[in-house]
Amino acid sequence: MEFIVPAELKAVPVEEAKCYDVIIIGAGPAGMTAAVYAARKKLDTLVISKDVGGQTLLAPGVETYMGYQYITGAELMRKFEEQVRQFPIALEINDEVVKLLRDENRFTVRTATGKKFTGRSVIIASGRRARSLNVPRERELIGRGVSYCATCDAPLFGGLDVAVVGSGNPALTAVNELTKCARKVYTIARSAIKADAVLREKAERSGKVEFVVGYAVKEIQGGDKVERIVLKQTAGDKELVLDVRGVFIEIGATPNVAFAKELAELSESNEIRVDCDCKTSVAGLFAAGDVTTVPEKQIIIAAGEGAKAALSAYQYLIEA
Ligand SMILES: Cc1cc2nc3c(=O)[nH]c(=O)nc-3n(C[C@H](O)[C@H](O)[C@H](O)COP(=O)(O)OP(=O)(O)OC[C@H]3O[C@@H](n4cnc5c(N)ncnc54)[C@H](O)[C@@H]3O)c2cc1C
């Protein structure tokens, strides 16, 4: 097979002096896909990212990315990176965008290492961070029973007892997803269930859900895998131990938008508002993946949105 880019072009220098056609912020599935699409349109492309792979690096096993029946998140991201490196894309990795400004029809991007880059268009693909409980054993047991994504991991808990931590719509959506396969789903809320009645009623109708209200997770326990969780009353000292194999933490996520807060229009949940072409409220500024208002947060969706954002940026540049 012949690649369109000769090998000697593969390592592309990062240049502060030039104005890039497109600057992509983030190298998760959305950012890397956007980069490949932009480069194939022969756009002068710079990717700035804290890491290569994003949240997918934390996914122990992915069964929903077409073409792979099963692949670890890290391996899938290595394949994305290999593909990116086939193209003349400048990569500024291990750096963080701290400020994004628009001046006339140019964007200026400032990074944590003090660099300044200029672009005619920008694609924000900076993803989000799931909020964690910050309790003992939570981090070590990610992928070993601790999950932040019911859509991704619910089928792994067929016939088992699990717990969902959280009280809002995302938590009850996860509960309803889990009732399809788990044997029992404990739903742990610190004060009250705040989700819409329709979601709560659906959970109740399943006959598999037990609400444990007025408790917070104190500790997750287990050897190699989650075996139980210890709960503590929020307004008292009583403790409860639940034997579960899965703990789904659904207490929200923080989109990585601090650098763009003054520029892009955000939703109530701080996600960047985009239309179906990944356009934001600012001309020349596009966004893709988990950082946006697109509802489903999945690798394949982020990648697809990244492709769309790059094609929209291309259209914008040829019309500008
Ligand atoms: C534990 C876990 C398991 C998952 N399992 C699955 C699964 O099995 N299947 C599935 O489809 N989905 C799964 N997901 C969801 C999936 O990982 C996300 O939907 C997907 O990664 C979103 O891609 P993204 O490119 O939009 O954002 P991200 O993956 O979040 O990537 C964002 C990128 O931006 C960078 N960045 C952030 N801020 C800045 C900044 N200021 N400057 C520069 N760079 C920045 C980050 O370093 C990162 O490289 C899982 C998520 C988690 C957390």
CATH-assigned homologous superfamily of the largest domain? FAD/NAD(P)-binding domain
Number of domains: 2
Mean pLDDT: 94
CATH class of the largest domain: Alpha Beta
Give the CATH topology of the largest domain: FAD/NAD(P)-binding domain
Q: Any ligands, ions or cofactors bound here, and which?
A: flavin-adenine dinucleotide
Q: How large, in whole angstroms, is the Cα Rg?
A: 22 Å
Model regions low in confidence, pLDDT < 50 over at least 5 residues: 1-9
**Gross morphology:** elongated
The total of beta strands comes to 17
Give a quick summary of the entry.
The protein is of the alpha/beta class and 320 residues long.
What this model shows, in words?
With 320 residues, the protein is of the alpha/beta class. The protein folds into 2 domains: 7-130 and 253-319, FAD/NAD(P)-binding domain (3-Layer(bba) Sandwich), CATH 3.50.50; 146-249, FAD/NAD(P)-binding domain (3-Layer(bba) Sandwich). It is 22% helix and 28% strand. It has helices at 29-40, 73-84, 150-153, 169-178, 197-206, 299-319, and strands at 19-25, 45-49, 89-93, 97-103, 106-111, 116-124, 128-130, 146-147, 161-165, 184-189, 209-213, 215-221, 228-233, 239-243, 246-249, 253-255, 285-287. The strands form 4 sheets. Strands 1, 2, 3, 4, 5, 6 and 17 form a 7-stranded mixed beta sheet that branches. Strands 8-15-9-10-11 form a 5-stranded parallel beta sheet. A 3-stranded antiparallel beta sheet has the order 12-13-14, with no helix packed on it. Residues 25-31, 48-51, 54-56, 58-59, 62, 64, 96-97, 125-128, 130, 142, 148-149, 152, 256, 259, 289-290, 297-300, 302 line the site of flavin-adenine dinucleotide (FAD).
